[in-house]
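Ticket #329: bound-state structure for iron/sulfur cluster.
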Amino acid sequence: MPFQKNHFRRALVNWYRRHGRDLPWRHTHDPYAILVSEFMLQQTQVATVLPYYNEWFRRFPDFSALARASESDVLHAWQGLGYYSRARNLHATARTIVDRHGCRFPKSIEQMRQLPGIGKYTAHAVAAFAFDQSVPIVESNAARVLARIFNLQTPIDKTAGREFLWNRAKQLVPERGAARFNSALVDLGALICLPHKPRCRICPVRKFCRATNPEILPVRKTRPRTKQLTENHAFVVRQNKILLERSGGRWRRMWILPPLKTRAPKRQPLYRSIFPFTHHRVALKVYQRRPCEIDMSSQRWIRIRSLDRMPVPSPHRRAIKYLLTAGRA
Ligand code: SF4
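RESOLUTION: The complex was predicted; output attached.
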């Protein structure tokens, strides 16, 4: 039987009107606000994003304010959200909008995609939510719903699977009301078509769904195995100051505990924790070190009371907080 897309849209949008989530970025058509929400939501849950989103507007209410801010302030505001390249790209985009677009965000998807960190998904999201253009969006929730509705057996993280989803989404999106339709698709994935236990019994589009075993969908290609890493760092304090180093690697230009240049001591570390990073599981170990000569090119003595104003990645901030409050300073 052919797919009845008008009926599908109606069933989905009617459900959304009654059950959709009330999110702050859905009350605006300001492209800046939409863009900030989309950058924050990449790889991050809504509940985590909400407090950051509100605070962000207090600090950087528009493109001009963000463009004027220092990188350090931007990273500090992003601290705890992770994937800091998003913050750097958002900052670079704000500067481009001010310098080259006279503070006006472009409406053309092609122009949007010239901006730092804006790929197909983000450009379509801004076009749909800010400018109500009739374009589809496929993020993780929409991808799961569509893969199940059409019983897609191709991995969605391969080109053929991705193209299938974008094509189907394009056929379904209405001429008018694309923002509402796209939000509805996303919310169906977030609230009903859940990854592990889809709530098919109460699903508003159940009669359109072709999935025979939805829990195993969407199919993904095999992921690379998680690698174990150990990273050893030093805890060095002197007269209410702590030694930090500007990271040149993973946390580019954020402040971290200085990495140990020599082999880790045989004794137990003062602090240890484990955190995930892409395909890695990183064991962070921190050892006490005495103050000695420091590398002035990348290290600084930072006043402990100024630490809150510094951009420090969460695993290191947690370690510092523990070590300072444990009275070791
Ligand atoms: S019927 Fe089940 S699998 Fe199909 S879209 Fe609804 S919740 Fe998802």
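RESOLUTION NOTES: Residues 5-216 form a domain with the Endonuclease III; domain 1 fold (CATH 1.10.340.30).
TICKET STATUS: resolved
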